[in-house]
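#struct-pred

JT: dropping the chains for the assembly here, can someone run the whole complex?
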Amino acid sequence: MQQPGRAAEIKAIGIGKSFGSFRALDNLSLDIGRGEFLTLLGPSGSGKTTFLMILAGFVQPTEGKLFSDGVDITDRPAEQRAAGMVFQGYALFPHMSVEANIAFPLKVRKKSAADIKRRVGEMIERVGLKGHEKKLPAQLSGGQQQRVALARALVFEPGVLLLDEPFSALDKGLRGQMQAEMKRLHQETGTTFVFVTHDQSEALALSSRVAIFNHGKLLQVGAPDEVYDRPDNRFVAEFLGEINMLPLKGVRPSGNGSTGLCEDRTISMGCKAELVRGDAILAIRPEYMSISGEAADGENGIAATATNSTYLGAATRLDLTTRQGAKVTVSVPNEVAAAALSKGNSVWLTWPAEKGFLLPRGGQ
Amino acid sequence: MRSYLSDRMGAALLMAPLLLFLVVAYAWPFLGVVKWSFTLPTPGLGQYEALLTDDLVQSVFIRTLRIAAVVTVVSVAAAYAITVVWVRGTPAQRLIAEFCILVPFWISVLTRAFGWVALLSNRGLINTWLQAIGFTSEPLALVRNEFGVIVGMTHFLIPFAVFPLASAMRSLDDRVLLAARGLGSSRMRTFWTVFVPMTRSGIIGAAMIVFVFSLGFFVTPAILGGGRSVMIAELIYLRIFQSPDWGLGAAISVVLVLFVGALMALLFRYVRPKQLI
Ligand SMILES: Nc1ncnc2c1ncn2[C@@H]1O[C@H](COP(=O)(O)OP(=O)(O)O)[C@@H](O)[C@H]1O
Ligand SMILES: [Mg+2]
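RK: done, full complex below.
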């Protein structure tokens, strides 16, 4: 966070934060790589903003240490850390023009007038605000204010850019557009981005890694496909998208993976049964399941009856019930859904072994 | 539509007694004063002509404006400091600030003026101390002059400046201040370049209120000015009850009311009434 123009590498060790007796963050350790795009994902109240504020230096952690490029910055005040920050609600200076807002961090750093003019001009160009230089924030649309906030946070080439739910106030179309622009800005600047959101699809689409928070704890960190396909626990599995869960008995290792019994059929899984043995839950994303007339020997499959369908346009969402009463949802081509419903009797649900993963029964 | 109309009717009915009171107690008598200003002692514009040529009236007008301006600047600056503590301080600081703001409201203007006389006069507390520690050999002239008037008026008016300032400071988004610091700005710089400009409407409101109140001050200048720093309200009193020159007194009153009215109109153009409380 100290050298301008160079992406920072951040290390948080055992960070905790209490507000009175309330535990907002608990024993959080996280490495943020140089130039990476890390997203903090979690439901509202899970401690994402608190962690971001600790990174920025606005909130002092109760326990733990924070390092930037190997230097301990735990006690360094915010104005000396100078991380670029985009706040929820933008926090632009309402009494300053677009230009003056973006020039602010450069003026603070006592850059020459010519230097400021050049860099502000470049930044305005880069975020597409040309022609709006003299306007006040109140005269801009939400998307434009967002761009001013981004420009102001990036113009002094901070080592890390912190963004707190920057798109939550924008409508859906604008959101997609701003997400694409953010990805571009990340590539162009090469700066480390730490991005907060409670929207899982946004997290998966943007980041190089996702860190999932709940109740002040960091539950899992990994690349988007990693956390989506191999969540460590039930909360992560459910928070990242729809998921089907089937009770499994007699889980044990087998070859490179494991096997178990689901409604009297032997099911094989690509993952090892290291942590989970005996009774467990088999979790499969709806899009990995298909419907067929019957399951071949050795193929993963269970019998179910279609109960309801929802037409989604490109596909149909089909709700099914297994023989033992487990509810399953799949997303299938429209004609497959129609056929399954018209049959009235049972169909087979099948899935590739490597797409199912194990979660402990009961707990999380 | 119907309930909207009846709501409006209800509000009008509730406000009617107040309006009636204001008309009977102020507007009607004031019309009488306007009439005097054109008729006493002889009908015509004579009193307004005198206003423009009378040296005493003019010097009092100028002194009133000067005192009001100084009082406004000092009161708003002091109120700003107190309000920052009141709105943004630690709980203990807030309590102390709130006490300092509210206590003056419980003490009458007369008591306060005499309190200042006791402090500032030649044999008052301050001069006694200054001489006791050998800082001065002669008593300083702290009262019975403009200085005393300004001290007393400032003290009286600070609490009135606090409320518009507090409302402006309370509506300020904390994140904007955090943003400034996060961008590298020191606390001092953030205060002057972000906090103060963002409370501009409160500063304008406070300044207008203090200025307008200052123009009509009577008791404080009469006591602390000791007859040597006569302000406009005292001059009107003298013209009506002592000279007596009712026509001139009335003309001065009319000019004062018009001037204050114009200031109020200006005030409401810049700040909404809600921000003043
Ligand atoms: N200054 C504070 N005082 C007391 N509680 C706080 C404070 N800041 C945050 N919290 C609490 O900490 C929890 C986490 O808040 P936050 O970090 O804002 O969550 P998120 O950004 O994930 O929605 C919330 O329950 C919130 O009420
Ligand atoms: Mg938040």
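JT: nice. The longest helix of chain A spans residues 172-189. The radius of gyration of chain A is 25 Å.
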